[in-house]
């Protein structure tokens, strides 16, 4: 299905994706939009012009400065809104007179992406980070714990430090061991982690649990994510309660939220199946998604260098299983909660999701040569100030962050 | 300093405390109040009658349904509001005509506590649980990790499952080991944890840190807290990322938030001092508080039985040190964040903060005899359905929860 808007750039913002985001311009306050090619369709403006009156919902949910009210409406409404937008933007639309052939309205409701500032798409109540990537969990420095294949292992992250792509990342200070003595100073082992994350649409009641086969109904959409990690701080603090300051200084997400429906064609089986307790037995076997995510190291003196190509399919549990487990004891989910996979490494050296694995905790440097007129040899054990790590996935946009010095 | 309102009950809601809470009645929507004896002073009503116009702040902050807007104003405003309320309520007030001797106004702004419903006092962004109680950390089943005395160890908790006193606690289901095999079922080792917690007033910027000697300025006030724990679930899930479902089913807090200023007379030194890295060196040595918290086991067939008497002074780090550490890497705090101590056990068997310690993980039952006409022998290894655990501290009210069955 093609659109009358050119979607031939490499963004992947085509009619089958239609990701949601929050944008503003010099003239427009922060509002909900849908990315299409080089444009953003302004859903607030469309709602104000009465485009959604045929759908049974309160269209003020499309007029907020986050996606929360809209996400809370549930998949029936989301499907109808998406169908309507696809109809309006399709090449062969029957409603051409309403937008395609109406230049005045096009000027009012289509904004060039290059003129928009993007904002955090949802107000995040709680952020949970799982650990369902088996290649990361089994990396050379780690022990695979006995519980690992029995349940999706996870921990609570820090919602206040989730930021949108292009927010500069200040190198954290912290406490860590140097020559086996605790010191306080600039993190010396700053790393990224490639992850995939779901935003919760409809929440769940305190004291109730979500059955695994109904859990997908609670997902609004997905983002790609970089969970920045300070390995030296994390290593010294984590016994016995897990990561804290090693993770809570920043987590970056992509600005565009790809709706659940758009990922239907990319369904895939998880890495392995083995007997699970009934509350984790999901009827659907193609319960995960195959979304390639490229990881590039950019920076002032670097051209863009593709380091790794990860994939969201390298997981042992699906999001449905994560949500069923998360709510098994009655923990309530709320609209806007962010649920992430943990690091998505693959089986080969080209598919790693963090430097910890690529350099074996800094012991084997990652090296490459720049191309161009002047060839340089670049060596990284961990990230340096001035480095930019950029994650990219078709339809999600970019998830990037520049490392700035601690002072 | 005494009030013209009788504060001779055992609540501790006297003129020197004046805790804040959120209440509603049949006629009044949820609003901010201050507890005094058997009454609540309705600050919204007072604000509407223009009582705060002499203080330089937007009094709409006193008209919300949470304390957040008010807490964000900072300690200068809080002090002036508190001074004004103390003046109005003092026995020897110079402003007797405005309230004490004005029966019509008394009827409008004083509400009987018995007629009020109390609500969660703040909208909680993130909830962090520390582990600064040394007697709990060194309990017989635990190893004291090498990092423990060098930094306040903590982890991120689940904000969505924090509830107010008297919310029934459903026994969680979950995955745990039975005869060394993972099963899914009702938690069999349900426990409480006695804690003390601070609500953040003014937050901090992402990428900045709070110096330890300025950290108290970011605290609005304190609550007592029960961090319910499912020991069997927690034990099986916690390696390597820490507690998750073993903790995220419920955490109960007291309804009344005691302002920082009210605890000044109860300052105390922490348990031990030892050389700390400079970012944790606090000038003030009486950096913690001595607040006794009683723990009672109540229930249908039980009279109230006092099990333990804990104290908030049994900690190795102050809240100021916890906040300095928490923000050292740039993690932003937000108004309404909840920061807790972890379990507050003391050095003796009468001062334990959880059943895990009292029964050595269920191996040595806790036993007592009921008093009254019919003496019964009561035995607990962990909590049973129908049990009520009630924490009480003078001026904070009660923090209680009834265990209800999982179905």
Set out the fold topology.
The structure is a homodimer of 407-residue chains.
Chain A: E1 20-24, E2 31-36, E3 39-42, H1 43-48, H2 68-71, H3 75-89, H4 103-109, E4 110-112, E5 117-119, E6 127-130, H5 134-137, E7 154-156, E8 162-164, E9 169-170, E10 173-178, E11 181-186, E12 190-191, E13 194-200, E14 219-226, E15 229-230, H6 231-237, E16 251-253, E17 258-259, E18 267-268, E19 288-289, E20 292-299, E21 302-311, H7 319-326, E22 338-340, H8 355-358, E23 366-369, E24 377-380, E25 387-393, E26 397-404
Parallel strand pairs in A: 6-22, 8-16, 9-26
Antiparallel strand pairs in A: 1-2, 1-5, 2-3, 3-4, 6-7, 10-11, 12-15, 13-14, 13-22, 14-16, 14-17, 18-19, 20-21, 20-25, 23-24, 25-26
The oligomeric state of the chains shown is: homodimer
Count all strands of chain A and give the number. 26
* Overall pLDDT level of chain A: 96
What does the main sheet of chain A amount to?
Answer: 8 strands, mixed
Helical stretch count of chain A? Answer: 8
User: How far from one another are the termini of chain A?
Assistant: 50 Å
What structural class do the secondary elements of chain A suggest?
Answer: alpha+beta
| Coarse shape of chain A | globular
Description:
The structure is a homodimer of 407-residue chains. By secondary structure, chain A is of the alpha+beta class. Chain A folds into 2 domains: 20-119, Fumarylacetoacetase, N-terminal domain (SH3 type barrels), CATH 2.30.30; 127-404, Alpha-Beta Complex (Fumarylacetoacetate hydrolase, domain 2), CATH 3.90.850.10. Chain A contains 8 helices and 26 strands. In chain A, the strands form 7 sheets. In chain A, strands 6, 7, 8, 13, 14, 16, 17 and 22 form an 8-stranded mixed sheet that branches. In chain A, strand 23 and strand 24 (377-380) form a beta hairpin. The longest helix of chain A has 15 residues, at 75-89. The N and C termini of chain A lie far apart (50 Å). The model of chain A has no long low-confidence stretch (mean pLDDT 96). Chains A, B: It comes from Aspergillus keveii. Chains A, B: Keywords: Calcium, Hydrolase, Magnesium, Metal-binding, Phenylalanine catabolism, Tyrosine catabolism. Chains A, B: Residues 18-121 form the Fumarylacetoacetase N-terminal domain.
